[in-house]
Amino acid sequence: MPRSIWTGAISFGLVTVPVKLYSAVNRKTVRFHQLSGKSGVRIAQKRVDPHSGEEVAYEDIVKGYELAPDRYVVIEPAELDTLQPKKTKTIEIEDFVELSQIDPIFYDHPYYLAPGPGGAKPYRLLLEAMAETEKVAIARVVIRSKEQLVAIRAMGDVLEMATMLFADEVAAPERLDELPDPKDVKTTKREVEIAKQLIGSLAGDFQPEKYHDTYRADVLALIERKAEGKEIAVQPEAEEASTPAPDLISALKASLDAVRERTGDSGAAPARKRKPAAEKAAAKKPAGKKAPAKKAGGSRASAKR
Questions:
Q1: Domain coordinates of the chain in residue numbers?
Q2: What is the pTM of this model?
Q3: Which residue among 97, 125, 169, 232 is least enclosed by CB atoms within 10 Å?
Q4: CATH number of 6-27+84-169
């Protein structure tokens, strides 16, 4: 069972919801250590004064903020302590907003919130109210001596909390020099229509289990083979033949055809063309069958005789 990394309470008006915080991710990164190529021994990292060449003890290290190259202002730990945010065990909800209003770029690290002792009822109350109103709570909390902006939302039967970036931490896209001026780049209606068809042919429901870190799997397989003493033959990369780049409309059409061939979808357009012909045939069919009407009339006449 995972251990909670923080305990506290959500402040929801005058209602207090005791909660426990759990990390919602388990990183699968393959980690390597630095070894000596000669001895195979793990290398030790040391803090060395570049002027004297001597190792600096941890207790002799101070924090310095660089004002200019090789110019620093030294900040004492006690000075930083006076600026530490007030330690609190409360997640203070400030606003409720629409989920669609939050750009995913603001999300940082996800967590789960579980009810703490005596918090089952208010926890469930907040969960159901947020789910029915489809709102996300924006709050502040101090974790590990740092104030965090967080977003809390209902996910099934659990509250999910994600730390967020502050607005001034998100770089504006206008800073990118490579972005072309929309006035200088024009697309045709035909290009947009084919691009929309390509998007539609690839559209579907998001299935997270469908996607895998193939690189990590290959690295682990390589490590396992080498640990078993197998030789790894590194093949030279084949040189790619230079082919002229197709024009945009041709590339879109080729991509759309490739997707349709892979999925067996011939496209919606041909089906719409065949439908009117079928409707015309169906419209002519009743007019050609007058015999049943005569038989019905004839039987009634026989009955009268």
A1: 6-27+84-169, 180-203+248-270
A2: 0.68
A3: 232
A4: 2.40.290.10
